[in-house]
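Question (not urgent): is this output format expected?
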Amino acid sequence: MKYAKQVKLAAELADELRKRVSSYVSFVEAFDTNGWPTISLNDGSAATTEDNVFIRVRPRDWSLQKDIIGNTQVVYVPSVIQIAVEARPRVSVLLAS
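Got this back:
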């Protein structure tokens, strides 16, 4: 598997999140179009108060990915964990009288 290190890291992270964050109803482990593992968390509430978290684990970009012959090297670089959180909008309503 090309991204075995990232897949293992994402699986361990998802297991830890399941133990520590019980308020989320939905835990979905998947892969994006690049083959990098992803984790989606959803609290299952109505759309206006929904709390979503998206996590992607990917290898760090490395500029020297070819060896002297031109073959792709096995890259042992650190992984990057990207987190996207859907923030609840802060709305102030001014009522006119």
